[in-house]
Amino acid sequence: MDTDSGKPERPSPAKSGTLLEILAVSTKLGLTSFGGPIAHLGYFREEYVRRRGWLDERSYTELVALCQFLPGPASSQVGIGIGLLRGGWLGGVAAWIGFTLPSVLLLIVFALFMQTFDLAEAGWIHGLKIAAVAIVAQAVLGMGKNLAPDRTRATFVVLSAGAVLLWPSAVVQIAVIAAAAVCGLLLRFPAADMPPPEVPVGKKFAAACLILFALLLAGLPLLRAGTGSLEIALADAFYRSGSLVFGGGHVALPLLEREVASPGWIGETDFLAGYGAAQAVPGPLFTFASYLGWMIGGMQGMLIATAAIFLPAFLLIAGTLPFWSTLRRSLPMQRALHGVNAAVVGLLLAALYDPLWTSSISSGGDFALAAGLFLLLSVWRLPPWIVVALGAAGGWLLGLAF
């Protein structure tokens, strides 16, 4: 809407926000935002742009565009970015706490339930694993259409999936992403035409965040090797997972599986059951880390895992906001990210096969249930939490019948 002077009305968020206000609004979103990151962005737009006018449509779109270029959970980063603009770095923390805490608490309850009862062979737990197959299959299909729409990038997808399945390690995953970035540069994918945003965040604070991000990414593995501490190992595993994920929570699955299931910190059944449960709660899918941390190390493990996996998202959005105008104009970066995004789809495709498919689909009944849940998600457009509930019920019925 225009003012009398003819200039677009742009709210001044940093001056008008209070921490309690930011916390209250973000908590409301954390309690009601079902449906995954794309749905979250719709909820954010309705609440922050249309209802409250904390920022205008263009500013919101530009912030979303920035978060699509960064590793980590895009919807959480958008929420943190709005909090930063509204109330400084403390506003970003308040926005993150409000949006994240409800799903953390729900998943802790689920973890306690898993630890109290012997549920490894329960039919409904198997149903949660089958629901996870359907949800990740839908994510692979949707991301493939958007991020690998041509033959070249579709080839990137298949080659990336094949590489990480043949040589399953975190090093290979990083090498695949790096190789895809180089190929994107060499093949000169078209760049998007999008104006850079205008953001009031200090460059000194931003530079400090980026330096801290790099120091932790490089230093935690060294500290882990030197101390042998489980707490440091947890911090390193979850921080690295949060730092190297492009494309949202689903893509964290293979990294997290390598980090926590391969060393034997948590069983594969418990891992996949928690992943299925994470689909049924509101808020960011990255709170799956809270469940894993609790299962591995109780309250302390949960706090370390939650803080470590989300910290890169905060440091990156706070560190790049003031430099976004320059970065967004860089054609090489845009082209490299085309390749990276296609490789990310390949990593997710590999995770769909191993560990999801190999540990969940073992009979015709399992396949029929997975196909039905996929149909409900992709064609009937049911919310994921309903599909997860139906998956648990279907798994229970399969257990009774066979």
UniProtKB/TrEMBL annotation:
Keywords: Cell membrane, Membrane, Transmembrane, Transmembrane helix. It is found in: Cell membrane. One of its GO terms (cellular component) is plasma membrane. One of its GO terms (molecular function) is chromate transmembrane transporter activity. The chain crosses the membrane at residues 93-117, 123-144, 156-189, 205-225, 302-324, 336-353, 382-401. Its main location: membrane. It is a multi-pass membrane protein. InterPro entries: Chr_Tranpt_l_chain (IPR014047), Chromate_transpt (IPR003370). It holds the Pfam family Chromate_transp. Belongs to the chromate ion transporter (CHR) (TC 2.A.51) family. This is Chromate efflux transporter. It comes from Saccharibacillus brassicae. The lineage of its organism: Bacteria, Bacillati, Bacillota, Bacilli, Bacillales.
